[in-house]
Write a structure and sequence with these properties.
With 359 residues, the chain is of the alpha/beta class. It contains 11 helices and 12 strands.
Length: 359
């Protein structure tokens, strides 16, 4: 029987740096034939566009598949299984498959899907990589029990309550084979040590906790973990239990995994696209975006901007008020416009945000 094709699941909250990590991996893939399955949250496929702009010969247009019909853990049957099967059925299948989940996805249902008939003998989960925004977690965002902010939180009972964000974070940590503390350059040595120790104590025995800046990790570290995670689900317990899963061996009940009975906080979030004309000064525009994000409590903002007089497209990615921007590829025949995806918790003032971003 042919060896199973390994698949790596890259999970992590909004803006943790999953796409940056995958981009670095592709640029240093050493000729490996890697296929990507990307699950976007939002109407504009920014992550897919960023990865297509890598120009990696071993990962071409046909090797990047986007799933945008909903969060991947809730559309397993309708979207993920057919997509994965199509990759496996290629005359020349990939050597490795990398799956980037949306920032809202629970990894456990996705890993469980690798036990489905038809794919269980053909592909295996090489490892689950959970990417953490080290700076955000140290500041207490998306994690209710980080040691560095326990004292501050103890003074406010409201901050001790479980939230969808903390439950998502806990599930992503519980399922991980490797935890990447990204943006480590934004932490002091003491903060990095404390966060690494905290995450190591909260994860399963044997889980690696590594630090990275801009997702830069050796390919040999990310790929080839050989965890066969789908056979180890009991150890990857879900903190959040709103997914209605029956016994993993009863695959007739797995049809529910595609559907519409699961609720794990997706309604707590919303996203929309704002378009505007060219910008003149990238640095000034980034500063303007940071102000809009602070004013309206936007979780994530990402997209592309056209800069007057510049042939290259400006990629923009913001987590909270931290805005990163860089030129990634020529526009070519594409329309020169600025398109931004705004992601936040439900109740965003769309009209005010749109007006501010278009100002």
């Amino acid at each position: 029987m042919p060896a199973k094709i390994p698949a790596t699941i890259v999970t992590g909250f909004l803006g943790a740096g999953k796409t940056t990590l995958i981009r670095h991996m592709l640029q240093n893939a050493g000729g490996r034939r890697i296929a990507l399955i990307i699950n976007e949250f939002g109407d504009l496929g920014v992550d897919g566009e960023i990865l297509r702009g890598c120009g990696i010969e071993s990962c071409g247009e046909d090797d990047i598949v986007e799933l945008s019909n909903g969060c991947i853990c809730c559309t397993v049957a309708e979207d993920f299984i057919p997509t994965l099967t199509a990759l496996l059925d290629r005359p020349s299948p990939p050597e490795h498959i990398v799956i980037e989940t949306s920032g809202l996805a629970l990894p456990q249902p996705l890993v469980r899907a690798f036990n489905w008939p038809g794919i269980s003998t053909r592909v295996t989960v090489d490892g689950v990589v959970t990417v953490v925004d080290g700076k955000a977690v140290t500041e207490g965002r998306f994690a209710h029990d980080v040691a560095a902010v326990d004292a501050q939180r103890a003074a406010d009972a409201m901050l001790d309550h479980e939230t969808p964000l903390s439950e998502l974070f806990d599930d992503q940590i519980a399922c991980a084979d490797m935890i990447v503390v990204n943006k480590a350059d934004l932490l002091s040595a003491t903060e990095a040590e404390a966060l690494t120790a905290q995450l190591r104590s909260e994860s399963r025995e044997g889980v690696q906790v590594v630090r990275a800046t801009m997702g830069a990790l050796p390919v040999e570290v990310l790929l080839g973990q050989g965890s066969a995670a789908e056979a180890d689900m009991d150890a990857r317990h879900e903190v959040h239990h709103d997914h209605d899963h029956e016994d993993d061996d009863d695959h007739d009940d797995h049809a529910d995994a595609g559907g519409h009975h699961h609720d794990h906080g997706h309604d707590e979030f919303e996203s929309f696209v704002v378009t505007r004309a060219e910008v003149t000064d990238p640095a000034a525009f980034a500063a303007h975006l940071a102000g809009v994000i602070r004013t309206h409590d936007i979780l994530r903002l990402k997209g592309f901007a056209a800069v007057a007089g510049k042939p290259m497209r400006l990629t923009i990615q913001a987590v909270g008020p931290r805005v990163d921007h860089y030129f990634d590829q020529p526009y070519g025949s594409a329309a020169r416009e600025t398109r931004l995806v705004v992601i936040g918790q439900a109740g965003l003032d769309r009209a005010a945000i749109t007006a501010a971003l278009q100002a």
